[in-house]
Amino acid sequence: KTLKDEGLEDQTIVVFTSDHGFLLDEHEFWMKVSLMDESVQVPMMIKIPGKKAQVANSFVELIDLYPTLAELAGLDYPKEIQGKSLTPVLKNPKKKVRDFAFSVTQGGKSFLIRTDEYAYIQYDEDAGSGMELYDMKNDPQQFTNLAMNPEYRTVVADLQKKLAQKLKEVRTNDLGITYDK
Known about the structure:
Arylsulfatase, C-terminal domain, two-stranded antiparallel ribbon, 5 helices, 8 strands
């Protein structure tokens, strides 16, 4: 209403989001202390002047906001950054910009690869402190850990490969910084 009253509605992009979810005793956790869906999923709404509301279901990461807003504002930005512009999704909500979402805990010791089908959580880079695998189609509340079930050995191996590749990608930079494993 204020944007409209001030004559700014037609030239202002509005983003509503959060940096993390919040557990309220789900999985016997409180606050953001895990990589379960309740903790890593966040709301994201982007209002663009002249664009009507739509719902998209593509995986996105918060690092995608910078290239998205830069592109929408007509600004140049480095194409080598890790974020991906969401403008294809904003133009067509059926488009996808990512095959999965990646998340990591603040201490960098726990990692998540979240696909349409699975949520894979790994503790330590070698999974030395454990791993969890949830079938998000049949167990969306993440109650049954399938990581040690022999029937899911191939799924775990595939997601571990995706995680190793993602960690390699996020550690590659032009800043001259070497990240410890």
